[in-house]
Amino acid sequence: MSASEILPHPSSVIPLVADMLSEIEVGTRKPTELSSADEGLEQSDSMADELSARELEVLRYLPTMLTASEIAAELHVSVNTIKAHSRSIYRKLGASRREVAVVRAYEYGILRFR
Predict the structure, then answer these.
(1) 3 state DSSP class of 24
(2) Calpha distance 49→29 (Å, rounded)
């Protein structure tokens, strides 16, 4: 069995991603509190930094199942640019992984369901 028989064609996935992105609203509120998982940790000053417009755009894609390479293709930038923005997002949200960054973005009101 070949990969083309297992994986969906990219043109059938793009509408799904568009639907997912339309359900996510990006806010501009700054992080104000730590997640319950980090109760014993000190809040760092970097968590109060605001995300740039481009970081917010990348953040909208993080809840999707798209890889960094696929996000880069969608935004017409290099994979390294997406990785750099992702690292900056993680740092500003005090996260070490993509999943944690997404949870915190929802907790802080930066991402909201419409």
Answers:
(1) strand
(2) 10
For residue 87, is it within any domain? yes
Q: Where are the beta strands (DSSP E) in the chain?
A: 24-26, 111-113
Range of the domain at 85: 9-31+49-113
Higher pLDDT, 80 or 31: 80
Q: Is the pTM of this model over 0.85?
A: no
pLDDT interval class at 85 (50, 70, 90): very high
CATH number of the domain at 82, please: 1.10.10.10
**Do the domain assignments include residue 69?**
yes
DSSP label at residue 33: S
Q: Helix, strand, or coil here: 103?
A: helix
Give yes or no for a contact between 39 and 82, defined as CB atoms under 8 angstroms apart. no
Give the total number of structural domains in the chain.
Answer: 1
Give the Cα separation of 26 and 56 in Å (integer): 7
